[in-house]
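Quick start: read one record
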Amino acid sequence: MKISESSIFSEVELPIQLNISFRKVFDVFEKFAHPAYHTHPFHKAATDLTKELKKYPELLTGFSDPSLLKKYESQINILLDPLFPESLLKNEIKAATVPFSFTSFKFTTRFEDILLNAGDDFELAVRNFEEDSMYMMACTFILGYVYNYNIDTKRPFHFDIPDKTTGTVKYYRAAFNGDFSEVIPTDNAPKITEKDFKELLNNFDNIALWKEKFPPNSYIFKGFGIIHLFDVTAEEMISSIKANLLKDDENLINNIENNLKDFYSLKDLRLGYSVFNNSKSKICEKILQISNSLALNGIEKIDCEKSYFCNGVLEKVFVKHETFIISDLEEYGLKVGKNQFYQNLSKLGLKCIILIPFNAFGSGSLALLEIGSSNAYDLNSVNINKLKDIIPVFAAAVKRTSEEHQNILEATIQENYTSIHSAVKWRFYEAAEKYYVESQSNTIAKLDEIIFEDVYPLFGQSDIKGSSDARNNAIQEDLTTQLTLAINVLIYACEKESLPIYNELKFRVSTFLNDIKKGLNAGDEINILDFLKREIYPIFNHIKEINEELKNKVNIYLNSLDVGLGVVYEKRKEYEKSVNQLNDKLSRYIDNKQKEAQKMYPHYFERYKTDGVELNMYIGQSITKEDTFDLIYLYNLRLWQLQTMCEMENIAYHEIENMEQELRVASLILVHSNPMAIKFRMDEKQFDVDGAYNIRYEIIKKRIDKANLKGTSERLTTPGKLAIVYSQDKDALEYIKYINFLQSKNQLGKIEFLELEDLQGVSGLKALRVEVIYQKNFDAKSTIPFNDLIKEIKA
């Protein structure tokens, strides 16, 4: 008889003294040995057995020494054989056990085989054992048996038992039968009253209280139990897979792979995952993700429709979205001519694979779950049915992941294309919530208008100076290059073929070239390109056929053209690259600085890229839902803006050395002291000023950078200087204070006090223009601390 003792429980403190006794089984035999059952088939055998077993009183009175189990092995077998019928020994996973100790004996054949396959070093032990929980479980057992206070605290015990033959783990749930046991209070066992019982019910986690009511060893247990194990590997794995799929874990694939190894009892099982863009017009068009993919094996780009997958995979997986099974990879390889898909799987040592497609809901893509093994027919059309309960779990996970992916895309769009700034998002949610509530009972519910009253505007721009001239110069240089190349081709053509038409065309191209060198007029570029397309290119197509030398000259011309545009685009490309480079640098900087400014006081912020960067800000009580507004926050934001634009000037200045074309910026701040209202325009999906009076502010914003100084033709904005436009003298006094502070930090220099010529519809504007002192070793990360700005405002 096999005996298994758990070392974990040998020293565990319990409220009961454990004694193994077979009295209750003996009583059954004694019942059938009674003369009243003399006609019963069991009577004679029971009479002989009871007579024999009475020779071993310890089996009936009980013993605590587990070694006696071996001593009385034959007698115990006789007693327990009726509970372990021969016909069920190879089917049931059952053993006799001592409760609360997990010392077990008298195993069924199947149970013994399971323990044998677990290895010599395996010890049968319950999963997640908690000593205190075991103590209280024994107490509830006593409450029910001795005092008839039944508490349902049944917790399923689980055993994780390795299988050395498969290299996997099997999972079992235990059911316990305690019909063959009894509990007897000792003299030092406190009597449990109803009051005690209620107190215990309210203090399940107070182990000290339970030990007070049930002191250690204060009760005697006599008997044994029957433990049944049930294989719950499939249920455990489904549960574990669900849990793993809910986690954001970088080891997700490995964790699920281990789950499936245990689920299938295949130690060589492999798991992969990939995602394809699977549009209706072109299946398997693009690989979106190759996370541990078996099917792709590291390949980042494939031509699905031509050669990679066979037609069977394309049709079943990518078109019909059905599972595809390859039970024998070598047999499959012979059928498909050992295509690249076969070769990649073979390199991994795989001999069979299952491809399970899932629609990535709402995204037009297809997720592919790949389960493979290194042994042919380990995975087949029969055992794939085991996955029926797991596939919906993966489908749900793919749906959730797809939705999360869509949310990320939506967030990216919101942030970069149609952003609702975080400072005012609360008001949109409030309006949306109100609309939702009203729409439940009102079919004509309307969305609220989003208006913020009494906010103070701040406007600034760092504009690329002379951008129109720079762009025209780039176009002029590119056209000059293109026309010169065309003339060179015609010169060679005249030498090879003395045709008057070549000279005439050369003359017309030269005329265009001379005109371009004098200056670029509106429409010149279109006229020249139209002329080249209509009259020059047909000639070039003819020239290419004359001889190889002329063909090379035409190719030199053609190779100098931009493939997409059909024109020389070198200088314009340099210009646009430089503009984008400068814009991106300034935009990223102001976006990062803005996060810092929001901590001061929530305010609305928007930034635009033009030929340079523009920023609008609005601050006021209505912008925020909670914080109390004070003008100190407006002043602080103004100083922050001035400081930030000085830093942006430095960034633009030092970026010159990294640009292919030298571009300078000219910076401007517009001051407006009167509060206004801004309204979200639903048709344009953006904020705009509200009210006729406030339109004047928008007009100034659009025209101010083109303003000249009064009585001169000199522009207000110029590189190296920062202009501050205002209409009230108190604003100038405020900004002079800020300028003095930045002068003390050696960031700004000499101030000019200027008047501006009248703009259309606007008059009386003035400006401060102050020199920007460029720092030799400017570091965007080492600017004036934010706290210093706040101190300056409060000073």
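The chain has a mean pLDDT of 86.
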